[in-house]
C-alpha cells in the first residue's frame, strides 16, 4: 500500500456491506481497518492477538462471557487475546479496527461471516 492521506469518513462512505472490513492503511505489521457493523456477529476468539475497536459513530456492544462492554463514539476498547467475544449493534456502527496483518475477522470460529479483507480504492 502506498503512503497516501486517507479520510476515515470517505472510506466508511465507500463501504456498503456490514461486517466487511476494508484496509484503510498499515503501520508496521498492523492493519488499520474501517468497518460498518449492524446486527450480531459470531462468538469467536483471536488466540494470538489483541483486537482494538474504536467507534466512530453509533453504539457497539462487545459481548464477553463475563459481561458486556458498551462503546459509543470516540470510545476505544481492546479485547485481550484469547478472550471470547461477540460484537453486536442494534443500529449501524462505524468503527476502526487495529489488528496484525492477516487477522481473520471471525478468528477461530470461521463460517459464513468470514470476510476477505478488501482494499480501499
Beta percentage is over 45%
CATH classification class: Mainly Beta
Residue windows where pLDDT falls under 50 for at least 5 positions: none
Rg to the nearest angstrom? 13 Å
Taken from the alpha-carbon principal axes, the silhouette is globular
Number of DSSP helical runs: 1
What CATH calls the topology is Jelly Rolls
Number of domains: 1
Largest sheet at a glance? 8 strands, mixed
Number of strands: 8
Summarize model confidence as the mean pLDDT: 87
Name the helicity range.
under 10%
Intertermini distance: 11 Å
**Secondary-structure element pattern, one letter each:** HEEEEEEEE
* Class by SSE composition: mainly beta
Q: Tell me the CATH superfamily.
A: Jelly Rolls
Show the helix and strand layout.
Blueprint: H1 8-13, E1 22-27, E2 30-40, E3 51-57, E4 60-64, E5 67-71, E6 76-79, E7 85-100, E8 118-119
Parallel strand pairs: 1-8
Antiparallel strand pairs: 1-2, 2-7, 3-6, 3-7, 4-5, 4-7
Amino acid at each position: 500500500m502506498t503512503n497516501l492521506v486517507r479520510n476515515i469518513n470517505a472510506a466508511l462512505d465507500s463501504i456498503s456491506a456490514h461486517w466487511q472490513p476494508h484496509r484503510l492503511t498499515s503501520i508496521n505489521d498492523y492493519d488499520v481497518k474501517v468497518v460498518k457493523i449492524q446486527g450480531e456477529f459470531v462468538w469467536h476468539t483471536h488466540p494470538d492477538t489483541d483486537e482494538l475497536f474504536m467507534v466512530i459513530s453509533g453504539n457497539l456492544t462487545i459481548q464477553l462471557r463475563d459481561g458486556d462492554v458498551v462503546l459509543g463514539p470516540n470510545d476505544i476498547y481492546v479485547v485481550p487475546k484469547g478472550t471470547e467475544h461477540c460484537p453486536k449493534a442494534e443500529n449501524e456502527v462505524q468503527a476502526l479496527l487495529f489488528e496484525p496483518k492477516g487477522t481473520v475477522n471471525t478468528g477461530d470460529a470461521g463460517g459464513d461471516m468470514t470476510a476477505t479483507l478488501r482494499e480501499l480504492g
